[in-house]
Amino acid sequence: MELIAVIIAVILFLVGLVGSVLPILPGITFIYGGMVLYGILTKFNTLDASFYILQALAVALIFAIDYLAAAVGSRRFGGSKYAAWGAAIGTVIGIFALGPFGIIAGPFIGAVTAELIMGRQPNQALQTGVGTIIGLVGGTVLKLGIEVMMIIWFFITIYTG
């Protein structure tokens, strides 16, 4: 049963990593779900509560990165606090209104719109929008790094106990 549990977990890990790059799938949910499913299938023989709690904290960090990366990027490129709020709101609206494309377009449109409403010049507003996209890319790289560390920790824990 342990081999089947590992195979299922690996499949979910791979789907999760792809989902972290292509926002069609909730990447971290698949990764953490693979760990939980492994625990259930193996009756939690090798993974204890502290493992799952620490992994859940990493999941929370990844969710925070998802929502903050665009806002931080817009601020780094000269955007106002309103652009940061516009990027954050645009992320949420974009995901629901535009599906997977919304994860990129929403923050960009939100940041640019906020800057234009606040009276910024169009070129500055567009620069802020580009900063938002750069923040998203940086956030994705950071998320992938954390997710890979989570997966490595999972394997170290189950094979070295």
Protein architecture, described:
The structure is a single chain. With 161 residues, the chain is mainly α. It has one domain. It has 6 helices and no strands. Helix 3 (49-76) packs across helix 4 (81-98) and helix 4 (81-98) runs antiparallel to helix 5.
List the total number of helices. Answer: 6
In whole angstroms, the N-to-C terminal distance is 17 Å
Please report the total strand number as a whole number: 0
Question: Any low-confidence stretches, pLDDT <50, length ≥5?
Answer: none
Largest sheet: none
Number of domains: 1
Radius of gyration: 19 Å
Could you estimate the helical fraction of the residues in percent?
over 70%
Beta-strand portion reads under 5%
Provide the succession of SSEs.
Answer: HHHHHH
**Mean pLDDT score:** 91
Overall spatial form: elongated
Based on helices, strands and strand pairing, what is the structural class?
Answer: mainly alpha
Key traits:
84% helix, mainly alpha, 161 residues, 6 helices
In brief, what are we looking at here?
The chain is an all-alpha fold and 161 residues long. Helix content is 84%, strand content 0%.
Helices, strands, pairings?
Elements: H1 2-21, H2 27-41, H3 49-76, H4 81-98, H5 102-117, H6 122-160
Helix pairs in contact: 1-2, 1-6, 2-3, 3-4, 3-6, 4-5, 5-6
